[in-house]
Input
Amino acid sequence: MSDGSCPNRERLVDYLAGVLPDGAADAVNAHVDSCQDCQSVLHTLNEDGDTRRPGVVPPPVGGLPDISACEPAIQGQLAEYKLLEKLGRGGMGVVYKALHTELDRVVAVKVLPLGQVDNEQAVARFKREIKAVGRLDHPNIVRAYDARESSRTHFLVMELVTGMDLAHLVRHLGPLPIGDACELVRQAALGLDCAHQQGLVHRDIKPSNLMVSDAGVVKILDMGLARFRTLQPADGEMTMSGQALGTPDYMAPEQVKDSHGADIRADLYSLGCTLYFLLTGQAPFSGAAYRTAFDKMTAHVHQSVSPVVHFRSEVPDGLAKVLDRTLAKEPDDRYATPAELAEAVTPFATGSDLRALVAAAEGRSLTPRPRADATRHLFAPSAKSRRMRGWLIGMVLGVLALVMLAVAIGYRPWRDDRRGPQPVPPGPATADSPAPELDGWIVMSWTLRGTGKPDLWLFRPDGSQRVQLTDHPQSFDVHPSFSPDGRRIAFIRGAQSEQSASVWICSVNGAEEREVVSPATAGERFLSPVWLSNSRVCYTRDPMLDRRPDMEVWVVDIDAGQPEMMFRFLDTPTGGNGVVTDVSSDQSQLAVIAQTGWAWPMSNVYITDLKGELVETLWKDDPDDRKDARVLWSSDRTRLAWHHNFTRGGLANAFYYGVGMAQLDAEGAWNCQLQTNRELLVTPLAWSPDGTHLLCAQMSSDESRATLILMDDQFQTDRELFELETHGWQPGQRDFGRLADWAIVPADVAVPGED
Output
């Protein structure tokens, strides 16, 4: 209870921020240990966005990682980490956005304040957090990368999560949709299950310690109160009241009595309180009747929680029962493991969209995700096809007429009126699972601001790392392509002072650069090398930079042998120039962009064999006045995607462009579609290694920035990855070769900056 000499609010804020002198901090600490009113004030401040608990990382402005900046402003240096921006602070640490100067990796660094380094309790708790986080590796737990002491400064390096914690999510949106609330809890339960399997109890699960990323993935934060079941309680462990340790609004009854004896079921109770908060907008015991921390903790031990349906009548009975079981006073009456709770809430998470939820809370809108036009077309239908289509339309109209007549006379065969209206049984759970971890590396021809030329760069798909592979001062590097085994990269290197270009390769880490095909004459150039095997590369040769139909496809063994011509485009059915931009995974067929006339903007999509014989005319505009480029083959050979201009060709720039896609059906026929939203400037870059998603660049209207996205086969954006400035990078213009590739790099290949 208060003794009448409580520190004022400003002093408590300074105490929570760790900026009080040592003596003053000790005095406040001693007072807070025995004052319930001050504990309640500290709890309120802890939940405040301006004095957040350590470990809760607020969303940076912009939403997506932006790794374009060459030299961001430096706020400080800690070992090899540049501290760029303070993200939050609390009684146990200050969290910074930081850049690893050697690995070019953006991270979050949590630093124990210098005023606490001589506080044994503070250091012990900080080290417990380091130990707890370091043992866990799960998509729903914030990952730790590094931890150490440097110049008497203790710090923990973690992944930087962009998004919003659940307390702020509800603060912005109010009570959440049922499906979204259950999906948030489901993912948190999966993370807790990983901790449980490692013998870890969190002991402070609450909305502000759970963050949902912009990609819709829940992350458990702040392991500062965590303990392992096999460890003895630490001497002098910080308490809230007596042996209670945690946050009063979300504390399990047994944790109030003895936090050291609490097991994973205490975390489940806290997660149940969190679900209650997400559904109702308030903690189970809140309001004027529960003003102090003592009031709240007493209620958790002795009082029943008001039924959730008193606040949300639409909560299903089944979900209310799940919540009641999770909030049972006795641990034995709750779910035994987090996995059981995750399974229990899954049926109620149907229809959730966490990406949209976070976007709404942050006051931004997601990229429109238009459904693809249902009409699949290649060329004008035959007369037989038109007759068949007419017959089908007539049959469908007839069936609809019969259904309308049946409704009019009251005939409802789908309902047994003798039993009365029946509830619709719940369908199978379709809740989005956590966004999958994106493996591998993306190689891209990209221009860093100030360099004036494109070089080869490696990017982690989540935007967490970038590595510059090439930087020849007098040359530019374009059209990168991974070898099938992911060990080498083929690319085109051009001289800035000349019109010629040559074929080069390097290892994935940028080493062992060497030229494999050089130009024989001035002005000779090469385009878009692709791998026929781990040792053979085919490429397009243009004898002179002009519009004559004289382009050829050649192949070279990069380890031995001279280049050999495979075919001339003039000898193929297209009769014009062309570029090979990809090869099927079995190395038997080529994906080709070719023209039928002399004007390059008029080009179409074909599949040929290795001799240039036509296998399939995949896409041809009629009349032929559109440019297609960069056709890309999925690893399973069932999909091809390409860049398509919606604006008429000729010699004019293309102002509207998007994605075309072909899918192979069960009968072996290619069905083609074009992106329906023609105002959305999207261009394809590469298929994901598993062949399920298309990596695309969504350009800003002035083409000064690109957001890398994953697109599904219905032209919907499944995930936004990161942003880049696009200096000298014009995917909407006349670049016919590859801009990027994506592959899994073998574990024995050391990539600079890789963990």
